[in-house]
Amino acid sequence: MQVALDKRNWNWLDTFLFFMRTLWIYYNASYVIENTANYQNKWLIFLWFMAIYLVPLLFYRPKYMKLISFYIAETLITASMFFYMMIQFQMAGVYDFLYLPLIMIGYVCQVRPYLWIGMITSVMVFLTGTALGDQFTEHFISAFINTALFYMIGFSLGRITVINNKNKALILSIQEKNKALEQYSRRIEELTIMEERNRVSQDLHDTVGHIFTSVITSLDALPFVMRANQQVAEEHIKEIADLARNGLNDVRKTIHQISPTESHLPLSQTFQEVVTEFMKHTGTTVDFKIEGNEREIGERIKFAYTRCLQEGLTNAIKHGRATQINVRLSFKEESLLMEIKDNGIGFESISLGFGLQGMKDRMTALNGMVNINSKPNEGTELRCSIPLAKEVMLND
């Protein structure tokens, strides 16, 4: 197990402890060398202290931290010097030599099992040195308390560093997640704008296409009506004007994102109104039938089916040149099916224009399907279905 401090950068506490350790080495090396009589021993002590200073730095320095290895090196080398000094001087002042190593050991031993190993090792070093120096005297308790206090200081500094390290990692993680959320939010906003733009475009296409097809068909028939009966022609012109006004209102509602089917009428009644208006202004025969027991459905489903009906009727006379259209609305147990079949010219292949693609997108958004079958000279059949089991989720 790696100590939690391994995964961090060198910080100001490390710099402070490095500086204190340098002063500690200088002070103790000067004292021991000065009080060593033998010249050769002075060099041995000097090299010993150099090892105490440099060997731990192999494992604990800026940009490289192996704190378990540092703990082992620090414990072995400084403990051996502590034992030597206790044997050599046999005085209570030698305990001062342990203060800085105990701070370092407490600093790096922050997680189990090293938390307990570091503490037990420090106690064992203290007791062994005390025995070698014959220091089990009346000052033993105070010396133990002092050394334990320095170990706790090191441990507290280590906890501060660990907590700061975790806080920095947490802040970095939060910042990364915030960036991801911002990117996700921007993407959702772009998709929402694109979806709304497509929805409004489709609504305008369906509304304008349906109304203008009816107006154009009525205007084409107007000269014949005028020659036959002037009064009927005037009434016909008035109906065309009303149809254009209604179409304008419908477009305005779409622009303001207000569904033109928000009257909460039953779907069958809405279909009947659309079919009646269509027959009135185009002269096309439409046979409308309802199968099954009608039940309440969501406004979004009503709106989607109404638009699909308008698009289907418009395409039947605009592209298929139909004179007879059959519309069937079937309320099944688990689905709602709309079928539009005409006697138009039919097509070898169907290409999805803007209107048909919009119809397909509406159905797909409600987990529905659109099928179009057509053959030359045999008319076209359009089928739209939505599973009503999803109604609770899709209802506005």
Tell me about this structure.
This protein is an alpha+beta fold. The chain folds into two domains: 4-177, no CATH class; 265-396, Histidine kinase-like ATPase, C-terminal domain (Heat Shock Protein 90). The chain contains eleven helices and seven strands. The chain has a five-stranded mixed sheet. A two-stranded antiparallel ribbon has the order 1-2. α9 runs antiparallel to α10 (354-365). It is rod-shaped and about 140 Å long. The chain starts with 11 loop residues before the first helix and ends with a helix. 27% of the residues are buried. Its EC number is 2.7.13.3. GO terms for molecular function: ATP binding; phosphorelay sensor kinase activity; protein dimerization activity.
Annotation keywords:
single chain, 396 residues, alpha+beta, Heat Shock Protein 90, 2 domains, five-stranded mixed sheet, two-stranded antiparallel sheet, 11 helices, 7 strands, 65% helix, 10% strand, disordered C terminus, histidine kinase, HATPase_dom
